[in-house]
Task: structure prediction
Amino acid sequence: MSGETPERGFPEREFENRLERAQFAMAEAGFNALLLTSEPEVRYFSGFLTQFWQSPTRPWFLVVPAQGKPIAVIPEIGAALMRKTWLDDIRTWASPHPTDDGVTLLREALREVAGEGVIGTPMGRESHLRMPLKDFKRLTDALGRERFRDASPMIRKLRMVKSEAEITKITHICAIASSTFEAGAELFREGQPLSDAFRAFKTKCLEFGADDVPYLVGGAGLGGYDDVISPPSDAPLARGDVLMLDTGAVFDGYFCDFDRNYAIGEADDAAKRAHDILFLAVEAGIAAARPGATCSDLYNAMRGVIAEAGGADGDVGRLGHGLGMQLTEWPSLTDFDETVLEPGMVLTLEPATRTVGSRIMVHEENIVVRDDGAELLTRRTPRELPMLTAP
Amino acid sequence: MSGETPERGFPEREFENRLERAQFAMAEAGFNALLLTSEPEVRYFSGFLTQFWQSPTRPWFLVVPAQGKPIAVIPEIGAALMRKTWLDDIRTWASPHPTDDGVTLLREALREVAGEGVIGTPMGRESHLRMPLKDFKRLTDALGRERFRDASPMIRKLRMVKSEAEITKITHICAIASSTFEAGAELFREGQPLSDAFRAFKTKCLEFGADDVPYLVGGAGLGGYDDVISPPSDAPLARGDVLMLDTGAVFDGYFCDFDRNYAIGEADDAAKRAHDILFLAVEAGIAAARPGATCSDLYNAMRGVIAEAGGADGDVGRLGHGLGMQLTEWPSLTDFDETVLEPGMVLTLEPATRTVGSRIMVHEENIVVRDDGAELLTRRTPRELPMLTAP
Result:
């Protein structure tokens, strides 16, 4: 149903490639080391995959030198799992620590690999420092604040283009979620509390092979919904409602991110028309997603279809984004993002339109940019708004 | 099976109480405003609950003034959901923004409520700044870096003591996960890939009423497992394995965090003995968890049982921790945490011991501290290591 399950993890060659590209970019940027603190950054260079990041207690550090493999500076609790990765140099401390939660160990590792040189760490758009500010201050005070520079542009550039092995994982989770959405007629029904519909979706998605469904939002209402980020209420689905579920399910650490709309029993013309407009907007996005086009080109292609059809702006801030180890990644499909598309970029196309009053409808698919244009990773939503009728 | 489902959300009085306690603490600390950026901090004062935080793209801000309700400074995409909370003052911008992702709006809100005064923001242990470092620098450069002080101690103090409404939610999710673990005999079996056992657990937990199972780690092996943070392998459960699952399931934004061990078909003496030691260590923890005792008292009570029985230290860094809106919260059950227990604190008791070679076993229960001692929130694991035999 969702094809062969791809092998978990990556061959060592994948990490060697990532590191090689990173060290090339570091040389260009004049960085003697990278300091990484967040889950996707650490995982990208090490393969370290665990839900233990749910716990905010302990900081985790990865130091990428200008030459040679990354050095892990991590709490002892993660040592056994980190030893299973391709890394050799794993330095640990007993965390939590009363006075020094890895800062001295990290400082020494940075001194060792960067000397008096420049240390890149992500500071820009969509990045977060995942260590206490006070500890970061201790570190930068000790090493020299001016030596720390923003590594966001280079990390963004590296991670935006996915390897075939990464694309295989995203393809797999897209197929699993597509199958789950296609089972909508057996999962969702009039009178069912929205929260039960969500639960049914998650359970089916796990059954079909998802590791997790960390993101499931949506809504239901006559002619659309009020927003696209709400948890489900317990209100029952009513005849005429448009039901939307938007999921970020995960396989082996890689996300899908797309939605489906359904009409419960019947749909009014506004909802049907909005679905039509959104379908066509995604078609335009697919057609525009070729190497050399920019994100703003994609935005304008989709926005143009909506405007031409007289659809009102849905105003969710952008019409799609990058996708991979995180539910949303750079770039953004906005009128100001001039990122040039390259083969291997994985994107969501996510047009939205206002329907009645403040209500909106959103539709989303996932694609990968190939040499000759977009390849769909999701199985396309039906042309007509799917209708769920009682059996 | 897990009792009545508690009402979702909180009455407005809950947030008034939190705010009142916070503003009292702010006055004591000399803070004219608080700046909060992370999911639990924003939710604690607003009730804003969404999985949209999975997306790292947009920053979200909450400003707590010395008097009056908090001010939300958030991306437009969250406005509809934030308007459903008890907040009145919701300021939004179209995010992502090409040059100013909320920084100017936030700066003005802080100027308005703090004047030239002190701004507290979490900078200490277990805290993270959830906005790009460069944007934080712009903000602090504009307002004066020296005006930003660490608010971690006061936030920690507020959030460590749970309200009855919070305890009700944690109790509910503990009951759901307890029921799921008690169904272990139908969920887990010899020959089953560990990944399937995980999937079966999650599905059952959702069926029993969990909103989500964002944390499920564990392992299986002869006489124990190598670590406690790994995702599942596809290796089949073998006769004699000790299987452990440790879950952080969620109801209405509140976590449980505990584990269960099972023997697959048979168990060796080392595993039985370790289970026995850990059971007794938790008993000692329960007995010691009285108002006025310190976290190090709890640590020593549990550590003492393990040492007395000749059990080897499991070395996961601590023997339990706080629990609530996050999988792990302050305090830590370590020999250096002198936090004094108060009624309303929710804790995990999590002793670990080494069994054979590098293998360990861990056992965990959840309690709330009451006036007269600990109240168990989880249904206690059986005294003897549970044995799963083929039906």
